[in-house]
Each structure stands twice: as C-alpha cells, then as structure tokens.
Amino acid sequence: MTSRRPEATRVDFESWLVAREHTLQRTALLLTGDPHSAKDLVQNALAKLYLAWDRIEQRERIDAYARRVLVNEHRSTWRRAWRRHEVTTEVLPDTGATSVEYDGTRDAVWGFVAGLPPRQRAVIVLRYYEDLTEAETADLLGITVGTVKSQAHKALAALRASVGDHPAIDRPMTDLNRQGER
Amino acid sequence: MTATEEMLRQSLHARADRTALEPTPMLDVVRRARELRRRSRRTTLIAAAAAVAAVGVPAGLALGSAGPDSSPSPADTTVTMDSLSDLPMGAPPAVDYVLDRTYVSADGTKTELVVDPGSVHDAAPYSGGVLVATRSQAGDSVGIADQVLFGPGVQVENKSCGGEELAVSGDGAHAAYTFFDNGCDRWTSVVLRWGPTGEGTGDPLDIVTTNGQRVEPVGVTADRVLYNVVDSTGGEPRLRVYTTDEWGPPLEVKGIARASTWDPTAGRVAGCSVDGQCVVVDEGDGSVQLTLDPGETPLSFSPDGRFLATATASDEQSPTVTVRDSRTGDVVTTLAGDDAAFQGDESSVAWEGSAHLLIARVDGDGEALVRLGIDGSAELATPATEPTLGGYLLPGA
C-alpha cells in the first residue's frame, strides 16, 4: 500500500525517464544487437519499473534497479527464445559484420560481439560498456564470478583470434586512444 | 586493461553512442505497464484452468438451434468501431465503475482508492463503502489479494490477505468475497462470505471451506452464491463449480470446469471446460443449453437472462464482443474494431439494465466506456481520455 498520488508517481517517473532513459537504451542496444529489439526490451523494462516505482525505497539506487530490471528482462527473453528453439540472427546486417575494412576495426569488433551467445555478450557489455566489476556483473546476471571471468576470457581470446590480424589490434594504446577521439 | 580490452570498450561505446535512439513516450510506458497488469490477471485464470483435470462436456445444442420457449431476437447488427472518436457522446454510466484508482458510483459519487497504481483487481460496493481487492505485485501469488474496505475517500478497514475475485448481484444489493481466516497462510481456512452491500440490512453469511481450496465467487443473490473452486488437496488440482445457500450443502454444477457468469433466475451457468469449449449449462443437472463457437468465451448474462455477452479473441489485444440471445444463440449485435483494444475478461463489461452493455476499450484516442445497445447502437458513456495504468474496470459483471 502507498499513499502516493498517481499524478505524483507519473511526474516523478517521467522526470527520471527523460534524464536517464538513454543509458538504458544504449545498454539494450548492445545486449540485443538491433534497435527494434532494444526498443521493445526498454519498453518492457520501463513498464515493470513504472509498476514498481513507488515500492523502490532506496531512491538513490534507481539507476541500478533499472539496469537490473533491463538485464533480467533480457535474460527472460533469451531463455524464452531458447525454449522455443528459435534461431535468432545475432549479426547485424548493417554493421559490415566480420568484414574488416580500412579503419573498420570497431565494426569488426562489434560484429564479433553481436555474434556471441546472449549470456557471453551480456558479460562483455556489462564489463566493458557499463564498466561493472566482475562481482557486480555476476550479481546482475545471477552467475558466479568464476563464470564471468571464464566467459570474458573466452570472448577476449576469440576476439583476438578473430580480428587479431587487423592492423589496429597490435597498435599501441596511444594510437587506439587517438582513434577514439576522432 | 589490455589493448584488446580497451579496443572492445571503445568499440562498444562507439556503437552505442553513435546510434540515434528515440525517447520512449510516457504514454507507451503506461500502456505497456497496463498490458503487463492485464496479462497477469489473464494468467491467473489460465493457470487455474490449465491445472485441472478434464471435465467432460455433454453434447448440447449448437449455436442457432432455438430452444422450445425461445422468443424472437432483435436483428443481428455489427458495429465496427475504428476509433473511439467516431462514436457520439451519450449519458454517463448508470452502473458503478473504477477508473484507475477512482471508484465512481452510479450516482456520480467518487471514492478515491489509496492503493498502488494499476493494482486494483476487483471492487464491489460493500457495507456502506467500497471493498477493493488489490495485487501488490504482478506475476506472483496467483489468486492472492489484499482486501481493503474504503469509505467515502478513506480506508476504513484492511482485510489483508484474501481472494482476488469479488461478486456483486445483478441488483447491486449483495456481494460476495473470500478471505483467509488464518492470517496469510495460503488457501487454508478460506471463508466465503456473502451479504448485503448496504449497512444494517442483514448479517453476512460465512462458509469455511476445507484446506487447500481456492474459492472464487462468480455470482450472488440474496440467499445463494455461485463459486469456482480450485481443489489442490488431492495432488493434481481440480476445478469445480458450486452453488450453495445458508442451509444445504454445496451443490456441484456439472458440465463445466470454471464458471464465468450466472443467470440465477433461470438456473443457468455459462462457463468453459478445461479444453476451452464454452457452454451454457443448467445448474441443476449440467445439461448443455447452448454451445459457443470455438474460441468464444462467455462474459456476462444480462440481468433478465435474455442475453449473453461473449468475447472472441481474433488476437490477444482486440477481441470482438458479441451479444447473443442466451437461449437460441442468435447473434444480436457485435462490436468489432481493428485497433480498439478490449481485454476480453469479465471485468471489462457490465450490463446497464438488459438493453445496453458497457464495454471498456482503449485505442489511440484514449480509453473510454462504450455503450453497446441490443438495437445495434453504440456511443461513448465516458469521454475518451489518456490511458491510465489501471484503466477501466467494471465490477460485479
């Protein structure tokens, strides 16, 4: 039970939505691999967050709660797809996927990430986009820290093998940083 | 961080940050939240039906085969509603309804329900106030609700754990609900209580059911109540329908596994078997009076029992509402529409007398109550307004 007025809840939630939705959208895009699935995932997560809004007692942790709802929703989605034995296209058609062209390192890397199994991709996104620790990632995905380590290690090893012959992979860090500034 | 890890980090940021993503309108969030709520309510019913053992449905009359005492029905009309804004504005509803968290009585009196957004599962006038069943969380505790009694604008009693379903008699004078007599211990010592909705007009009657049974009142009169029971005492849950009064033992209604609506005057019950076939049966011997089309589910008998409102799901979001002659099965009128969403459960419709059916609908223009006449007329009973999380709910249907 709560005594909050619906208008207050709506205004409060909408203020948060305007300020913070873009971070959820970007994470969703990386988790799902395409804008349409990301939009659907974000809408479901936002709806569940809205339903629970008045019950969130630690208001300073709303962002973390929202991310948890999003990741949980994504886990449910891939598990449902697995139960239905669906085969989803993991590689985006507009990314150039695995074709490594001039200055196309990022596309090649993204093509590799998009082709990872859902859980492994989630580990990579949470560790290297959200910058979560191994423990935080494990907690969010409901897996052990050891699994996070092994999943990340395998993904990085495969990534090196996949795009290791690309010129950028052997560049020094300074070159990579300069490339990121362009 | 290794070079590979840094490259990975930069690639992910570049991918995410360069993609233009449109903000989600608040309206879409509210709509999706309400879908989730509705889906949760629907899941409650499906979960109950899926868990039961099969109940045979005797062969009966097919649709359109007139019974011996049938009278002519109005001509079949179909109202195709593309948009709520197409309909003219009519008189306000003559029955009680809930809009999100406001209970509106037929005389226009409003009672604010101080509950979580979208949590109202059912409501009924009771003991001089409004009894509300709420669910605190979507998707869990199937069939469990908090029950709160509100007076004019204030909470007067919190009944804590109980059932989600409430029933109101056709004349609005009696209501029934269930609660737990043993704290919140699920489905032990369930009390089915029914009594007058006003104060000082008689004492409520109680039945204590056996442990392990979930009880859902479906219909109520001054001295009888019809209810569904999910019996989990024997391992595999079984679904049954009963009627009872103050004196005799409960009588099982044969031929259906779950009842949707009751015509107490004629002694008929509309409901479905576990295989989804829906029928109208005689409550005394279970003989089938009418068999509905595949995929068609009963919603509500008219107060005089002459008509039966049904829903046919063309898809999950916008079932067609049909009013049939309850004896012959003839279609009297139909409300269809490509975009307008109707949730298809019993609490989304209510009869206003026996000539008009109120239907809760929502589309791009907003949400509203639509009044469908058996003469084929259609109008708005409430103006189309921006959708709320709880939406419209018609208690006691």
From TrEMBL, chain A:
* Keyword Transcription regulation included in the entry's annotation: yes
User: Which residues constitute the signal peptide according to the record?
Assistant: none
| Keywords attached to this entry | DNA-binding, Sigma factor, Transcription, Transcription regulation
Q: Where is the RNA polymerase sigma-70 region domain?
A: 23-84
Which InterPro entries does the protein's record reference? RNA_pol_sigma-70-like, RNA_pol_sigma-70_dom, RNA_pol_sigma-E_actinobac, RNA_pol_sigma70_r2, RNA_pol_sigma70_r4_t2, RNA_pol_sigma_r2, RNA_pol_sigma_r3/r4-like, WH-like_DNA-bd_sf
Which ranges carry the RNA polymerase sigma factor 70 region 4 type domain? 112-159
Pfam family for this entry, one: Sigma70_r2
Name it.
Answer: SigE family RNA polymerase sigma factor
* Species this chain originates from: Nocardioides astragali
From TrEMBL, chain B:
Membrane-crossing residues?
44-64
Q: What is the lineage of its organism?
A: Bacteria, Bacillati, Actinomycetota, Actinomycetes, Propionibacteriales
What keywords were assigned to this record?
Answer: Membrane, Transmembrane, Transmembrane helix
Instruction: List the InterPro entries.
Output: WD40/YVTN_repeat-like_dom_sf
Name of the protein in its database record: WD40 repeat domain-containing protein
